[in-house]
Amino acid sequence: MCIFCDIVEGKIPSKKVYENDYVFCFDDINPVAPVHVLVVPKKHFDNINELANSPEGALYSAEITKAVAEVAKIKGVNGAFRTINNCGEGAGQTVMHVHFHVIAGADLTEKLI
Ligand code: 5GP
Ligand code: ZN
Predict the structure, then answer these.
(1) Do residues 102 and 37 lie in contact, with contact meaning Cβ atoms separated by under 8 Å?
(2) How many helices, marked H, and strands, marked E, lie in the chain?
(3) Parallel, antiparallel, or unpaired: how do β-strands 82-84 and 100-104 relate?
(4) pTM for this one?
(5) Helices (H), 20-110
(6) What is the pLDDT of residue 112?
(7) DSSP letter for each residue of 11-29
(8) Which domains does the chain have, with CATH numbers?
(9) Residue 99 annotated as catalytic
(10) d(C-alpha 79, C-alpha 28), whole Å
């Protein structure tokens, strides 16, 4: 059982922002900024390591990158946004279906890196 697979399949409702054959993008249920969208591949990969090592990894990675840019454009923040991926429990990953947070609309000047 995977929450994000259920969201991709429409079994769990979500606020869709963008979708194509490869990705599903929706508002985070617990936003940390005015714009907080999750970009999720429709195929299940546990994390970025599994994505990278999959035969379809290059295809999905490219589609995720395009979707991140598309989401930022749709939300009107393509000039200033941040993309975050947490890989593994130690880095704070709580949903074990790889996803990329697109965050904007808040003060992003404070940087960890
Ligand atoms: P992680 O901590 O794994 O990097 O990010 C998981 C994210 O998924 C969190 O920001 C959390 O708020 C979000 N999330 C968890 N469950 C749901 C859900 O059922 N619906 C939506 N829209 N977001 C969720
Ligand atoms: Zn999944």
Answers:
(1) yes
(2) 3, 5
(3) antiparallel
(4) 0.98
(5) 48-53, 57-74
(6) 81
(7) SS---EEEE-SSEEEEE-S
(8) 3-104 (3.30.428.10)
(9) yes
(10) 21
